[in-house]
Structure formats: structure tokens, C-alpha cells
Amino acid sequence: MFATSTLQDLPCFTVALCDYPSLPENERQRAEARYARTLARQLGGEPEVAHALRTIESLEDAPPEEITEEVKAVYHRWMKAARAAAEAGMQGLGGEDGCYFEVRPQFD
Hints:
Number of strands: 3
Strand content: 5-15%
Shape: elongated
């Protein structure tokens, strides 16, 4: 698992490449780091990744009529960034059916 860090050395989010059992650990760590760097770059920094992820997670319980245009914009930015990050993370690995990157915020 790859954990990012802020200037205060507190992790903002973690990335884990899941369901790719044949991948050597050093390759897994490099893939997770590439994913995290690309996601942060696409969204404007590590704290912004954690903020966007919390916003996306809040959609699970939100009734459709309460979803604002701002939240929709965050969702679309997240999806675009996650696609770019997955492409970067999987670069050179060849891929494994069903593998995916899991991103989790570390602190609220």
C-alpha cells in the first residue's frame, strides 16, 4: 500500500493495487506510487484528492435532489483523474483481469 504525505508528514490518502496476486511487491509499490502521483497532479494536490474522495463517498447516502452542481463537478473531475491515474499506474504491467486501485482517505 502506498501512503501519501503532506508537508506535516501526515498521510492524506492511501492507494492499494488489488486483485493482482502475481505482481511482485516492488512492482506493486511502483504502480501504486504512479497512480497516487497522477491522481494528485490531476486534482491539484494530495489534500484535494482526500477532499474529493470524501465528497464522492458522501454521495452514497445523498438523495438525488440534494446533489449540487459543485458535487457533480467534483465527481466528474474525480472520474477523469481516476482514469488517467489507472492508466499511469498500470503502465508497463500488462494488466490483470479484475485488478483495480483502491483509494482511501486517511484523515477527516
